[in-house]
Specification:
- With 118 residues, the chain is mainly alpha-helical.
- The protein contains one helix and no strands.
- It comes from Ovis aries (Sheep).
- This is ATPase H+ transporting V1 subunit G3.
Amino acid sequence: MASQSQGIHQLLQAEKRAKDKLEEAKRRKVKRLRQAKEEAMVETDQYRMQRDEELRQKQAKIMGSQSNVLEEIEVQTLGKIKELNASYSASVESVINELLSIVCDVRPEIHVNYRITS
């Protein structure tokens, strides 16, 4: 009976050690998974920051060139406006005089298709 009790006791101790080893393995697995998740988060954050920086640089490059183009267009537009205003100022009086002379100086003539019938 004592040897049987001792064998049961050894089996229970072996079962307890196996259970402890399983629990320890589970804890290590959970710890390693948590650590891997944290490492992945850090890695993705670094990658995201790198891509965001590349995007900002590209946007700055494009927007910078666009602002230069916009400035050039603005300068050209102002130049054209000045040119048109100068042309208007130079020819407004002569155009008005010509229009007035056409409207006011009426020369009555018989149309070429008009036939006198008697």
